Amino acid sequence: MANDREVLREIWDGKLPICFQLAQEEIMEIQQPDAFYVMVPRLSYFPLVTDKMKRHFLRYISQENSDSEMWLDYNGQPLKWHYPIGFLYDLLCGNDPQLPWHLTVHFTKFPEDVLLHCNNKDVVEAHFMSTVKEADVLKHRGQVMSTMQKKDHNQLWLGLQNDKFDQFWAINRRLMESHGDNEGFKHIPIKLYSDDGTCSQRLVSPKNNDGSRKTLQQMVAELYPDKHDVQLRTHGVIIPSDTPLQWLSEHMSYPDNFLHLCVF
Amino acid sequence: MMSATTITIEEFLEAAKEFVKKSEKVCDGWALKLDKTDIFKTYIKKDTFIECPDTTALYKIEYVIFYNLSYGVPSFSFNVWNSSGMLITLDDIRRMSFLQINQKDFYSVITQQEHPIFQRPYFIVHPCHTETLLAAFRSSSKNIIVTFLGLITPLIKLKLPLEFGYQ
């Protein structure tokens, strides 16, 4: 069970200051638009927090592009909206922090070979729910999600969308329970990303063969037998290597129920 | 980890190799892409061209079958490009009657996702029912990928030569 409530709260409250600027080639007015500054929750997704920013820039772009799909880049690299904001920052700026985070806004030339289309928030919801479901398949063979009611699924999503900690965790705690006489999940939902953006997924058990709790260090030794000094970052912090994976999964997973860890 | 309903990566690879061998015999164009450094990134794929009967426009289609680690089942993914190299959207694909995708299930079953191997957008058939369906056929299946494609074909018309059914 996710019992360390202060940790959950601290992670939920994590925010990033962002400075949005409209791409130069898209500005159609003589007057330059002001940059748009905003604090956004690390756990959220860009399409959920950019409505106001979009309205701010719309009057500076060509009318014919006002209905086209907006997208963001950092340093020329398109940002994948389907990853949590805090994870994107850790991946792209983890080694070289810059605050506020400067991002460029585009309304043309959507990089369709890199980014998923996202015409509305329903697409984000569908992506979020299917990721939570996948995590539950790893943890409890999908039993928790399939026994929940539709209104519970909605509450999970609305809790995240509206930044309501209690609403979200009232449901999410059930996804963080261990079943049977097992102290722990069947597998830990975990995705590991190198700084070139490649992701690897493995079936990771929260226990060692002798039944003891597996630590981060032990998992790293299994996954990267040739590498030394592997460090992992999430939510802006480097995780102590003696942290048990089960605790990490219960407390440091993103709302999609996956641990998204940056390897460096 | 063996379980009654899921398949292991080894079982998937075994079936994939056998499937590609059969495909070569009948020149069906499926190829195996082995990844020696990361076994989970091994997949089989087929490229094909389809002409739209109404407009005679030509489309390139890429089918990829890979191993879904979380669900422990094969997964089906594809992309379609037009002759200028532009990716076709989900709405466009739905209108392409020549692909013969079952309209009723369409949006609940096929979504655009980041491909776990290529990390680019692909249309992926959702794996959540695959496990139960495959489990029902598993004991009688000669090749799990042939059986799996049998489950996909009602959704997307793939012309699979009958020879795949023979031993």
UniProtKB/TrEMBL annotation, chain A:
Keyword annotations: Acetylation, Apoptosis, Autophagy, Cytoplasm, Immunity, Isopeptide bond, Membrane, Ubl conjugation
Domain of life, source organism: Eukaryota
Membrane-topology descriptor: Peripheral membrane protein
Residue ranges of domain Autophagy protein ATG5 UblB in the record: 187-263
Span of domain Autophagy protein ATG5 alpha-helical bundle region: 122-177
GO biological process, one term: apoptotic process
Record's subunit section: Conjugated with ATG12.
PANTHER family according to UniProt: AUTOPHAGY PROTEIN 5
Similarity annotation: Belongs to the ATG5 family.
The protein's name: Autophagy protein 5
Organism in which the protein naturally occurs: Mythimna separata
UniProtKB/TrEMBL annotation, chain B:
Keyword Lipoprotein: no
Keywords assigned: Autophagy, Transferase, Ubl conjugation pathway
Gene3D superfamilies, per database record: 3.30.1460.50
Entry's Gene Ontology cellular component terms: cytosol
InterPro entries tied to this protein: Atg3/Atg10
GO molecular function: Atg12 conjugating enzyme activity
GO biological process, one term: autophagosome assembly
Family as reported in the entry's similarity comment: Belongs to the ATG10 family.
Protein name (record): Ubiquitin-like-conjugating enzyme ATG10
